[in-house]
Amino acid sequence: MASEQEKTADFGFRTVAKDEKEVMVAEVFHSVAAKYDLMNDLMSFGIHRIWKRFTIECSGIRRNQCVLDLAGGTGDLTARFSRMVGEGGEVILADINASMLKVGREKLRNKGIIDNINYVQANAEALPFPDNTFDCITISFGLRNVTDKNKALRSMYRVLKPGGRLLVLEFSKPVVKPLSKVYDAYSFHILPKIGEVVASDAGSYRYLAESIRMHPDQETLKGMMSDAGFDSVNYFNLTGGIVALHRGFKF
Prior knowledge:
alpha/beta; Rossmann fold
């Protein structure tokens, strides 16, 4: 019989039933989908593009390979991977949220990027792909919204090919104390106001700030990836640890 802790999950600073969290997260991203790219630029002062570029550089992607851009949202990474794998490769943009997937599909098609991309609505905890399918999996700013992170990491490990790698780009814990205080003030006071003005939704951005604080720190996530089966797990602190890129291999 499952304990009460096993039946619940964090939704920001609140504790909710596990089956409720997925619905609540879906509502958040349905609300923010249309302004997602604009808000990313405003929230990070454009630095998210540098974080994503570094992730791509660490991916080791080559032509004719198969990539899963999980929680891929509006397709920033997918667009770059599409060019890298070429006509003989494939990129799957997967997201649990239909609204985000729709925005991503429209954005990429408007750019003329269509030939080697497929779109799949999928839950990271139960990926609908055969074992050993992908050369690389990325999940960018998505893992903290997953209800059962350990289950999701095991699912990613299963569908990754031997020799493949997982890259997790996610907000993390600043490693410089003064930066941490400034970051907290920005996240909880300024960010919701930006969300209210630009996206008419302060509540969703308040949740996003809370979800960042509840996400495992760098060493904890490293341990979770190792427990899921990944080898040679390491991480890179970016912008003083505000963001971290974790990388693990399947040997």
